[in-house]
Amino acid sequence: MRLTTRIARRFLLGGKGAGPSRFTGWVAIVGLAVGSLALVVSVSVLNGFESLVRDRIRGFEGDLRITGLAGSSLKDRLAKLTRQEEIQVLAPYLERKAVLFGPDQSRRMVTVKAVDTERPDRVYRLGAVDRDTSVTAGVWIGSILADRLGVQPGDRIRLYSPVDGLT
User: Could you tell me the maximum CA-CA distance found in the chain, to the nearest angstrom?
Assistant: First the structure.
């Protein structure tokens, strides 16, 4: 019999003078079992949460981001990428940091992403987005940001880009 098995048996099943009582041994076993169960459950929940967050980020950002394609050869590079059979869909965009001013001059620092307005859902999973097809230009703002700025659909907003110096 191995030493560890012998010590465990003596600790749990031993009689007088062999160590703690049987009750204490069983309490220790139950405590270890409950602790192990709690650890397994919490790790499983965290793994599920991680996959949920990953799917949400992929729905907004896509699987791959290639930067530095601006310039005269942009069309050539996009055509080259389109010919890759591994790439199912691609969508060029422009991204900048900016300050967004609401109607009451409340302001928030935001990341502005200019995307293809024809079919944004071919790359981005935006879920239920109310789209007015009669509007040719506009801005999509998330509900939390809209609440913070006090913005309603149809309100005028101001956007200032410190990088470009444009309003």
Answer: 89
- The candidate with the shortest Cα–Cα distance to 75, out of 92, 61, 89, is 92
Entry pTM? 0.47
> What's the pLDDT at 33?
93
- pLDDT value at residue 37: 96
At 141-163, the pLDDT tens digits run 878 888 888 888 878 888 888 77
Query: Which single residue is written with the structure tokens 């790359």?
Result: 123
Q: Of 59-68, 78-87, 96-105, 155-164, which gets the smallest average pLDDT? A: 59-68
CB 83, CB 140: distance < 8 Å: no
